[in-house]
User: Fold this.
Amino acid sequence: MRLYERVIPGVFLQRPNRFIARVRTAAGEEICHVKNTGRCRELLLPGAAVTLAVSSNPDRKTRCDLVAVKKGDLYINMDSQAPNLAAREALPRLFPGLTHAKPEAVFGASRLDFYLEQGEKKTFLEVKGVTLEENGAALFPDAPTERGVKHLKELEGCLRAGYGAAVLFVIQMRGVTRFSPNARTHPAFAQALRRAAETGVRVMAYDCIVTDRDMTLNAPVPLCLE
Assistant:
């Protein structure tokens, strides 16, 4: 799906804080908004080739968003809004017979990404974007996420309440061999994901076809939850 109408290439220079980055372009240095507040330390290295999406809003403080980066041969989208957009486009494929989809659905004390209906079957779905890759494995999270643990517990609550429950890890690149929870960075999340899967939460991981302008959900990636 088309995410960005106009893009320009650049070279990453520095990230003074999690919201902005300095990027060198053919027109000179650009101060741009980073569309991912995660650490992304293994991606945003000085000299890395990046892609900027040019905004059509003349009133913005920054003209561009940093949306993608090259890591070796991998082209990685790092726009935190892209996974939900890609997932929404793919919902009929992931949930055959889908008759209704509502984004931003409240359950318990959390707002989950989608509420879905397949006829009489009702399911809550949480989507997580994945940008961390190590030795061919996609890992989540790249920083501790208590919010992520909370969402998994809420999905277990959905099951107890009689709903279906699923979590989809959208890997924002192509070419990985497996998906695993990042137990080294956040052991509690890894434990929560294993517990959720054992309870009956459907765990899915898909890689994506990524270009400078779009990102499309591609194919399932093997899970390695242990």
In short: The chain has a mean pLDDT of 96. The longest helix spans residues 146-160.
